[in-house]
Amino acid sequence: MSGGEVRFAGYAAVFDRVDRGGDVVRAGAFAGVSARGVPLLWQHAPGSAIGTVERLEEDKRGLRVIGRVSARTAAGREAAAALKAGALDGLSFGYRVRAARGARPRELLALELVEVSLVTHPMQDAARVIAVED
Questions:
Q1: Which of 42, 64, 92, 131 has the fewest Cβ atoms within 10 Å of its own Cβ atom?
Q2: CA 66, 70, 73: angle at the middle one, nearest 5?
Q3: pTM passes above 0.85
């Protein structure tokens, strides 16, 4: 890869674990998900697209993500450097609820994925980058 780009893999969501907001994502919530049109953001900031989501899929553990951070923007360079240094490993996602049940915890059964973000503090502690390649 060139110019400070970094490729990573990880989980934006892990099934059956309650997050800090009192939600729990259930297997199947991302059924039919596709990376097409899903932006990779920095800290959930809509104006800070930092690269591309190359692949998204549900597996037994959760929502697996493969993404590429571009060095074209200041935010992208910051995110790439933090990933390479091991100073950042949080992943998160933005969504719209299509189906849920319960209150605390609220079970998220069907979601529309809006974005994936590299973040300092993920809402779900287990949502992490697990591999980095530069």
A1: 131
A2: 140
A3: yes
